[in-house]
């Protein structure tokens, strides 16, 4: 089984921007409703289409499967079959031997900025960058699928 081990944090400031070495615009939507056994996401990352299935579980570790699909088909599915469209730009930052993914959300989820790090094990040590804020790995509201249903702008 493919397992993703990922920790998610808020971003405290913009100091990460100077270290970003790449970025990609992303647009995605969901084929399965929030509350199903899995999130089923269709995404276009720049010019690449992807189908992603993740266990609908809150926490650091969960089953994940991802497949590349034709971008044209991904765009068609997003436009005709998906709900809860998420728009964001993902920036890549190397720090302390790890690759951080910084998601800058757009539209109804702006000005939310979230940093994610994938690890080899749940207890793997990593260096915390100075721009890293509070951990939100166990807060369902910050998961993309939840944001697609209840956007950041609607939070109290």
TrEMBL record:
CDD domains: CYTH-like_CthTTM-like_1 (cd07891). Gene3D superfamilies: Hypothetical Protein Pfu-838710-001 (2.40.320.10). Coiled coil: none annotated. SMART domains: CYTH. SUPFAM superfamilies: CYTH-like phosphatases. Residues 2-149 form the CYTH domain. Pfam families: CYTH. The active site is at residue 30. InterPro entries: CYTH-like_dom_sf, CYTH_domain, NeuTTM/CthTTM-like. It comes from the Bacteria. This is CYTH domain-containing protein. It comes from Stagnimonas aquatica.
């Amino acid at each position: 089984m493919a397992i993703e081990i990922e920790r998610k944090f808020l971003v405290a400031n913009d100091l990460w921007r100077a270290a970003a070495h790449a970025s990609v615009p992303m647009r995605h939507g969901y084929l399965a409703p929030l509350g199903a056994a899995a999130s089923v996401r269709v995404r276009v990352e720049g010019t690449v289409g992807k189908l992603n299935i993740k266990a609908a579980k809150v926490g650091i570790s969960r089953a994940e499967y991802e497949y590349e699909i034709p971008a044209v088909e991904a765009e068609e599915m997003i436009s005709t079959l998906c709900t809860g469209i998420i728009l964001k730009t993902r920036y890549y930052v190397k720090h302390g031997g790890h690759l951080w993914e910084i998601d800058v959300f757009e539209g109804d989820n702006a000005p939310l900025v979230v940093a994610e790090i994938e690890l080899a094990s749940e207890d793997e040590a990593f260096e915390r960058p100075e721009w890293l804020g509070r951990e939100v790995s166990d807060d369902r509201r910050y998961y993309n699928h939840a944001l697609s249903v209840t956007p950041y702008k609607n939070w109290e």
